[in-house]
Specification:
Strand content: under 5%
Shape: globular
Mean pLDDT: 86
Structural class: mainly alpha
Radius of gyration: 19 Å
Length: 281
């Protein structure tokens, strides 16, 4: 039976900021931005470079979130997503598209200020990977690849903003990529049924909810273990305590439902960055 959509009248007036942030997936976007900012501090970037690369990541994340909701508008209306401001009509489509274009231009300018190497990596494997996911990879067995690319590239997007630095260490790239795949799996779980109804079958859909939870519970501590063991020297006792906390959070992903597993993944990401910052000191 064909899926039907309900037309929603657009509202006039200024765009409400909470709805605009919700359409941009504000929580995850801000979390990734915080991670980028902390990595910039760890890398010892100049204030200008640190601000430029962090703002470039933030504006890039905004474009990914808005692009996702714009492309999924018909699907979100079909399944009655009341948490999507575009689907409910709280945001007019045309004006969100304009905001997306402005954010994309800002991302390009800010990336250029951070240096051509950082800009190229951000445009292709960080922000670019997010748009590749939105444009079709999300419905394939390769749905995990954009997350691996984006999260794995993020440390190097930061370090390459400093002309005197090169690529981030391989262990840091591996930790980011592993964390990204785990976050993707958990972020997909609450929407498995809705996605199936509208023909989206990414990697988590193909292996099922139970296996997805187990996979995420393995990947998230693995990313943290790389963060603990990767830096030079013997890991301090507090680092192992953080790893223990990460393991507990990962186990929560097996027993909780809704958005809680993804929030646990975000908490794990921030804990990983704390380990990285402390190791640099």
């Amino acid at each position: 039976m064909p899926v039907t959509t309900r037309a929603v009248p657009a509202r006039s007036g200024p765009l409400p900021m909470p709805a605009l942030l919700a359409a941009a997936h504000g929580g995850p976007s801000l979390a990734v931005t915080v991670v980028a900012g902390l990595l910039a501090l760890r890398a010892g970037l100049s204030p200008l470079d640190a601000v430029a690369v962090t703002a470039a990541v933030f504006t890039g994340q905004l474009t990914i979130g808005w692009g996702n909701d714009l492309l999924d508008l018909r699907r979100d209306r079909a399944v009655g997503r009341t948490d999507k401001p575009l689907a409910t009509g709280a945001l007019p489509v045309g004006r969100v598209m304009t905001t997306l274009v402005v954010a994309a231009l800002a991302c390009l300018v800010l990336s250029a200020l951070a240096g051509w190497r950082s800009a190229l990596l951000n445009a292709t494997l960080a922000t670019g990977a997010g748009h590749a996911y939105n444009l079709g990879l999300k419905a394939t067995v390769w749905s995990w690849a954009p997350y691996a690319c984006a999260f794995g590239a993020l440390p190097s997007v930061v370090t390459l903003a400093d002309p005197s630095q090169g690529w981030a260490p391989l262990w840091m790239t591996g930790a980011g990529a592993t964390l990204g795949v785990g976050a993707h799996v958990l972020n997909t779980l609450p929407d498995l049924a809705d996605d199936e109804r509208t023909g989206v079958r990414g990697f988590p859909h193909r292996i099922g909810e139970r296996r997805s939870r187990v996979l995420a519970a393995v990947l998230l501590p693995a990313a943290s273990l790389l963060a603990v063991l990767g830096p030079t020297g013997t890991p301090p006792a507090w680092a192992w305590a953080v790893f223990t906390l990460v393991t507990v959070l990962a186990l929560l992903t097996l027993v909780t439902r809704g958005r809680t597993p993804f929030r646990a993944a975000v908490a794990i990401a921030l804990l990983d960055v704390v380990v990285l910052l402390a190791a640099a000191g």
